[in-house]
TrEMBL record:
It holds the Pfam family Phytase-like. Keywords: Signal. It comes from Paracoccus rhizosphaerae. The keyword Signal applies. Residues 1-25 form the signal peptide. The keyword Cell division does not apply. Residues 43-282 form the Phytase-like domain. This is Esterase-like activity of phytase family protein. InterPro entries: Phytase-like_dom (IPR027372), UCP031900 (IPR014567).
């Protein structure tokens, strides 16, 4: 009994120190590396979305002021990010070809890049999703999504992901209250309410992606005041019968990272990797971080298999 208790306490301590999920979870995320991305230009910062290419060598990154960056990722022999080279930047435009201003109409939050290369961006404030065949051309707004309880000017369509079949999934930042589930909206020619995702008190949805394993990964954030931000990553299956196999993979400590808002899930040739990006809110005390984790199957899942 004492040995079991000691092992349990050690497991809890390791989870606290590393920010990983408890050892009984089916899978956990192991930290790979953190890179602080800096660039001396006014539009740089406020990143709310990121997409890493399937080979891990290139990226798209979205700011919350309608600027989209793209380029290449430099990695060392261990696959750890050592640099981000910008190949281009575009100021996203409205359907008339006018650059979007910051604020109500230009608060870009969610990013999803389809297999066809088209770029999809969700906005809060004026809640909508816009598709770009090219980031330098006018946007093509989708039909306006339905308003669901909890959506507001600073709590709109924060998280956006795209399935292999091209269906877009959008999740508002919050629900009607902390005990009412998030509403996941789906667009496949028309908007529908796809699923209701459990919401735990304090946590808000800020990013989403579908992994190469078909699971839906949700990034959530909690602001702890002077203690800064905490983040967690969940994965689940979105099925016709609703949400299944919902589990927490990662919960970070206060001040462990900055304000993580974007998530990209991809395969590095060996394992599934999760890349996160932080929003520095254009405040000099904060920073833009690229944080990467690798998915590890736990013994609990191995025993099931």
């Amino acid at each position: 009994m004492l040995d079991r208790r000691r092992s349990a306490l050690i497991g809890v301590a390791i989870a606290f120190l590393t920010g990983t999920a408890p050892a009984h979870a089916d899978a956990v995320l192991d930290h790979v590396g953190t890179y602080v991305w800096e660039r001396d230009e006014a539009p740089f910062g406020g990143f709310s979305g990121i997409e890493i290419a399937p080979d891990g060598a290139s990226f798209h990154a979205l700011t919350d002021r309608s600027h989209l960056y793209w380029g290449s990722v430099q990695r060392d022999d261990l696959g750890i990010v050592r640099g981000m080279t910008v190949a281009g930047r575009a100021h996203l435009k409205d359907s008339s070809g006018n650059p979007l201003p910051p604020g109500y109409t230009g608060d870009s939050e969610g990013l999803a890049v389809g297999a066809d290369g088209r770029i999809h961006v969700s906005f809060e404030g004026l809640d909508r999703v816009v598709t770009y065949d090219d980031p330098d051309t006018a946007g093509a707004p989708l039909p306006r999504p339905p308003q669901v309880p909890g959506m507001g000017q600073n709590a709109g369509l924060e998280a956006l992901a795209i399935r292999d079949d091209g269906t877009l999934i959008a999740v508002p930042e919050r629900s009607a209250n902390e005990t009412i589930p998030f509403t996941a909206l789906a667009f496949d020619g028309a908007w529908t309410q796809l699923a209701r995702i459990r919401r735990d008190p304090r946590w808000r949805a800020v990013g989403a992606d579908f992994g190469p394993d078909g699971w839906f990964y949700l990034l959530e954030r909690d602001f702890r005041g002077v203690l800064g931000f905490t983040s967690r990553v969940r994965r689940m299956r979105l099925t016709a019968d609703g949400v299944q196999d919902d589990e927490i993979l990662l919960e970070t400590r206060p001040l462990q990272y900055d304000n993580l808002e974007g998530i990209s899930v991809w395969h590095d040739g060996t394992d599934i990797r999760v890349t996160l990006i932080s929003d520095d809110n254009f405040i000099f005390l904060q920073r833009t971080e690229i944080v990467e984790y690798r998915l590890r199957q736990t013994q609990a899942q191995a025993l099931r298999n």
